[in-house]
């Protein structure tokens, strides 16, 4: 029997790669439902090519336009609208496996809905975990859901850990497995070698021009500031129940080694591969089996040098802020994530400068870093409060 898939964020970069993996394995997977924000044209194509039973569009006008387009093209599909529609799709018991690939905090409510129906979830939406960490995994345990990492580094770490750890995400015993360190690799983004003075003049088109990966705009900017690595540091802590000292960030510009696990006996296990998200997506969909992803293996004889270096915190203050937030706790990581989302959006819209991203994030920690949300409701309240605070700071710029 085919695995039914509910794809949240179907029109994005991870969404497209997931559809490619589904298309490469038509005997194993079928698209049951899909959700997106606004992109009617892309969603219409998805309905045409994958015939999902249900689709949700966050933007209500866009949902109306999609309905009209389906009628016009004689396509049958149950179309829901708004934030509630997206949550309803995720909560649908018939929905099978959920790929969580909505960008940002907007992805958390639907992922929680999937958790509450005990779904198996391939998690790309790292912001959801950064926002809610331990509380998220409490829910996963309570409802018998299962989470598999899609973020390439976390997929790599997952693959380098023993089965006992893989089966206990959120509460695994790294020390008991003989793990000394998780080595989290990051490319360093497009500005790894640019003169520091030039960072003040960076434009959105320069920042989204990632040297290796082709991704959505928000994560591309995050990669350029290395906030992405900071969010991944926090993501790794929550996923693998790791302490701050258990995770070390290593800059690896080629993005061929996707991360490593160093054991107490001196062995280091690494996962390598061509930098293409179809590989970690296929790993998460098929686990514990493997399926074809459309990505070929590495040709070692033609590989150029693989290099590794320490991150430079002067160049990447956002990475330092994320590590500081991780030490401070859940309130700080929630606040930092919210501030970063607002700041990156403002930068992409021309409402602030590139270097303001780090200073706005620092302001969020100064103002909210000491908060201790004890419930998911308090997390959402804090997220909203920080957004208002940072939007006001942007408006004053
Ligand atoms: N791209 C990558 O290679 C990687 C991405 N990730 C993570 O995966 C997530 C997605 O990234 P990426 O695919 O690059 O992002 P994109 O910007 O390419 O795609 C974002 C997706 O989210 C949808 N979306 C946005 N807001 C809403 C909303 N309110 N309700 C429903 N859907 C919404 C968008 O719909 P629409 O376009 O229709 O508005 C789109 O389908 C992020 O959390 C990112 O950090 C992790 C590792 C690698
Ligand atoms: C592909 C993926 O997982 C991204 O999160 C990637 O890691 C971004 O590149 P950086 O290593 O530059 O952040
Ligand atoms: Mn990543």
TrEMBL record:
Mn(2+) binds at residues 151, 153, 232. Transmembrane segments: none annotated. Residues 272-388 form the DXP reductoisomerase C-terminal domain. Pathway: Isoprenoid biosynthesis; isopentenyl diphosphate biosynthesis via DXP pathway; isopentenyl diphosphate from 1-deoxy-D-xylulose 5-phosphate: step 1/6. GO terms for biological process: isopentenyl diphosphate biosynthetic process, methylerythritol 4-phosphate pathway involved in terpenoid biosynthetic process. Keywords: Isomerase, Isoprene biosynthesis, Magnesium, Manganese, Metal-binding, NADP, Oxidoreductase. SUPFAM superfamilies: 1-deoxy-D-xylulose-5-phosphate reductoisomerase, C-terminal domain (SSF69055), Glyceraldehyde-3-phosphate dehydrogenase-like, C-terminal domain (SSF55347), NAD(P)-binding Rossmann-fold domains (SSF51735). Its EC number is 1.1.1.267. The keyword Manganese applies. Residues 5-133 form the 1-deoxy-D-xylulose 5-phosphate reductoisomerase N-terminal domain. Catalyzes the NADPH-dependent rearrangement and reduction of 1-deoxy-D-xylulose-5-phosphate (DXP) to 2-C-methyl-D-erythritol 4-phosphate (MEP). Belongs to the DXR family. This is 1-deoxy-D-xylulose 5-phosphate reductoisomerase. The gene is dxr.
